[in-house]
Amino acid sequence: MGEERVLRELNRWEQELASYVSNDFEKLYEMWIQEQFHKFPKVIQQRFFNSVDQWLIYTYTFLQGTQTQNDAYARLLQVGRTYDESINTVEDLQTLSIEKQTYLAHQQVAKNRLYSFVQGGTAGSGGWLLLGVDIPLMVGLNLRTIQLIGTSFGYNMHNPIEMLLALKIFHAGALPKRLRYQAWEELKEAVREYDSIMMDHDTLTDPTWAEQPLKSIFKTLAIVLFRKKMMQGIPLMSIGIGAAMNYKTAKDVSDFATRFYQYRTLHTANK
Question: Which domain of life is it from (predicted)?
């Protein structure tokens, strides 16, 4: 019954993703972004994507080596043992029902959204230093959450293939909604062709990701613009913009990641 319930929810979510239709403004915006980006020489474009890829990989591996993340993995195993005392390793979590795995993942998602909300609000209230570290912190928080969601479903996130999948999930979840369904289909194909992921790997980011830096710039400009509008000495508008946008990104990425690992678990079980 639990698997059937999760499958229904997953199918409903997937249908909503597939049926999303871009409005005229989104289409014009996408055309403008692509037009501006393609003005750069291909060598510069490739260098940009390679730099972003390397930064994401470095951030992912750095997070995996932190004591905070290791402690989080240990807590997940401890909670897992309350369901099954024989659980000793991350892979043992795969023996739990998908509803219990999803519950473990939702605990991590709730924390990430709270952290992202606070971090965004802090960036909106502070100076240029806090604004400057906003993007790295936001990326780090969301990658950390994907690692914990994957672990909740019993996958060893230290595995290089799992790392590539997690980075692709982050890329897909952070895309505008109109582009997520295609990325979702590509990830489903990656699950079916799991053993060839490393061979097929070229780049993680592509021109569809070009909107993300621009969105971050718009957020920074909005925070700076409203920073002088104080209420009792507090820039509430700037804090609200930073908190709301980071919360939305965290929600989009964590929802996408949870649905992916649910799909993967069901797909593996039905093989």
Answer: Bacteria
Domain coverage including residue 189 = 2-269
Cα separation, 37 vs 25, in Å, equals 18
> Which value, to the nearest 10 degrees, does the dihedral of the CA atoms of residues 11, 12, 13, 18 take?
80
- Give phi and psi for 231, each to the nearest 5: -130, 110
What is the number of domains present in the chain?
Answer: 1
Other Cβ atoms less than 10 A from the Cβ of 122: the count is 17
Q: What whole-number distance in Å separates Cα of residue 250 and Cα of residue 262?
A: 18
Are the beta carbons of 262 and 125 closer than 8 angstroms? no
pLDDT of residue 48: 79
* DSSP designation for 63: H
User: Do the beta carbons of residue 136 and residue 103 sit within 8 Å?
Assistant: no
Q: Distance between CA 231 and CA 41 in Å, rounded?
A: 47
pTM: 0.88
